Amino acid sequence: MSIVIRDVREHELDSILALNNAAGPTILPLDAARFRKFFDTAEYFRIAERDGTLAGFLVGFGSDADHDSSNFHWFRAHCDRFFYIDRIVVASRRRGGGVGRAFYADAQSYAELRYPLLTCEVFLEHDADPVRLFHGSFGFHEIGQHVMPESGIRASMMSKDMCSYEWVQGTYGDALPDEPWLPRPRASSAVAADA
């Protein structure tokens, strides 16, 4: 019963979108065009599989991304450089089984080499205490609140310092070694950044 986290594949987008839109009130629903934009531009877009079955996904953007989320822009106004977790969704039958923790460990491994802060938001409506506790157990803390103009939902804006970032930057700068275990930006976002 291992959890495998890997980059999303284009043919999986419909299944992942259905998972997103079935997640309930703590995740905003999306249409296919918006989801396709995630695939085309997200720096980090990975899925989790458990026993060969889709168990969840996580989408993230670096602070220089062309991303139109009001929460992302809130962080841009309040933080210099950061990696933003736009959304994490775990299939209801897989919740409580370690998928979320595996995602956050993977996303942190990616972010700490490139950004001084890892950021996310938690909606304060809909019984947010378990979700806030989950994030607190990973070292996140609230740095402010934001009411999203598109939905009127209040969010707790959370961040976590990436303790390895300063050492990695001082040692390697932007020239990280080419190691097979080192998480890389998705090819589509690297192409978009070079364009």
From TrEMBL:
InterPro entries: Acyl_CoA_acyltransferase, GNAT_dom, UCP028520. One of its GO terms (molecular function) is acyltransferase activity. This is GNAT family N-acetyltransferase. Keywords: Acyltransferase, Transferase. Residues 3-163 form the N-acetyltransferase domain. It holds the Pfam family Acetyltransf_1. Gene3D superfamilies: 3.40.630.30. Its EC number is 2.3.1.-.
